[in-house]
Amino acid sequence: MTRNLITVDDLDRDEIERYLSLTDRFAEVMQRDLKKVPTLRGRVVVNMFFESSTRTATSFELAGKRLSADVINVKGSGSSVDKGETLKDTVLTLNAYRPDVLVIRHKSVGACAAAARYTDAAIVNAGDGTHAHPTQSLLDLYTLRRRGVSLEGLHVAYVGDVMHSRVARSGAAAFRTMGAKVTFIAPPTLLPPGLEEGLGGRASHDIRDIADADVVYVLRMQHERMGDGGFVPSLREYSREYGVGHERLRPGQLVMHPGPMNRGVEITDALADDPEVLVTAQVESGMLVRMAVLYDLIAGPAEHVRNVPVEEVAA
Ligand code: CP
Fold this sequence. Notes:
The chain is an alpha/beta fold. The chain is about 35% helix and about 15% strand.
């Protein structure tokens, strides 16, 4: 049976733990001089990015290459999508190469689930509109776990544009599955209705509530999803009311941001440049987690794979 990773809601605590443990094994491999294993030799990974990306696109590409898979990268711009080819026809076309995994980013909610109807390859959702970004949530968990932070009982405050954030939706679900508590802090216009019932976190409009959090997770203002605007009176006012800088933090609080950052809007320049902020660690975790995801979808999660050195599970 083909397995997909379309939303983190499909993963229970044991499955998330399995991904985090697998990621640890790849982190160990990446400490070596030769940072490549033959694990997925002869396998085909197609990265289909129909919406802009730096971190997710490059990390999936590098992850596939470090596992020795054949990696094909297709972007919306410069492919036949420019000529009006549909997602269905693009998937059917690339399916002719008999890929093992299709990694898809798309601006439309549900695009990855739709694509799964046209291929037997495993689908990984690399972000579909405002819906889900499951590998981002796994890399966020892994970044904290790698620093020795216990997820059980952790308090994470998402701050900013929750309305348009697939990072917050997937992250909140993953953190809650792992026993963490989540708060969403934003102006009323950027908090979707029904949030507390839907995502299970507490909603607040008061930035001072970040004081209670162990992790302050700053969200990007997603200008490209805001149309004609009207969500905030002005970016300057938003920044004054909800922007996160050192003056709003207490000692010991951890700061995360999925990138790309709008410096001077949701995060101050000084905080963005602070080496204690976890942004770069998140990027590093991204490649490791995506190695684990590709490996798991192609080679795992059969019981016999679990205790075998990752380089020995060749195709
Ligand atoms: N965090 C994230 O998804 O970044 P990219 O859009 O650069 O992939």
